[in-house]
Amino acid sequence: MRTLRFVAVAAAALLLLTGCSTAASDADPTATSDASASAEPQLEGELTVFAAASLKTAFDELATQFEAENPGVTVNPISYDGSSTLATQIIEGASVDVFASADEKNMQKVVDADLATDPELFATNVLTLVTPVGNPGGVTGLADLANADLTVVLCAAEVPCGAASATLLENAGVTASVDSYEQNVTAVLTKVASGEADAGLVYITDAATTDEVETVDTEAADAVVNRYPIVALTGAPDSEVAAAFVAFVLSDTGRSVLSGLGFGAP
Questions:
Q1: What pTM was computed for the model?
Q2: N or C: at which end does the chain have fewer Cβ atoms within 10 angstroms?
Q3: Sign of the four-CA dihedral 244, 246, 247, 253
Q4: Main-chain phi, psi angles of 17, to 5 degrees
Q5: How far is CA 238 from each of CA 16, 75, 97, rounded to the nearest angstrom?
Q6: pLDDT tens sequence across 158-174
């Protein structure tokens, strides 16, 4: 009798253990899949970006958000300058992952050098006339840029804001009396904001970044539109990270940041 009772107790214990094991497995059927998902490789590496000067505020914000979403990625300090200067540096061998230009012409130089393929448009921009706060020169419109008594600064012709300025002034029939040509739009804005110049032409997005300038109604400015392309370079040191950043700029998040700063849709 004792032997039979022992066997019965042992059998009951075995059934109880088996049931617990089965219940534990049934209670969390996703445990294995969750573990597999968490084991997926995260994006890692460094990112070097060359971007048009007019993109500084937007791309600084986008870089911060991109790093936050990808903790394994370090975005190096972004190089901002005139698009023509950046394109030249890339063609001459600068180690870059992503190039964002303020026009298609300078991007095409990089494409023609077989350093990039299929750039995508991600934003547009237009110019506005700006003066120092208080408008000491009494500027009322583009025609006043022909006044030799005023100090006028514009972007150099080879950079996108300069080419756009030339087209805008030509369309208006104005021959500007220019005192200084600058290599990027930031330099124009700085000279006007500091009072070194009475007037200049900058992008509306740049004018919105400071309280030290006033905008003047700029007739037909919306007829001269700069289109901004972006591309991951074919020789990008970290191609996976480069492609991910380009996708991020083109995403709804990127679009939201850009539109919030005044950039138009591509």
A1: 0.84
A2: N
A3: positive
A4: -65, -40
A5: 55, 11, 7
A6: 999 999 999 999 999 99
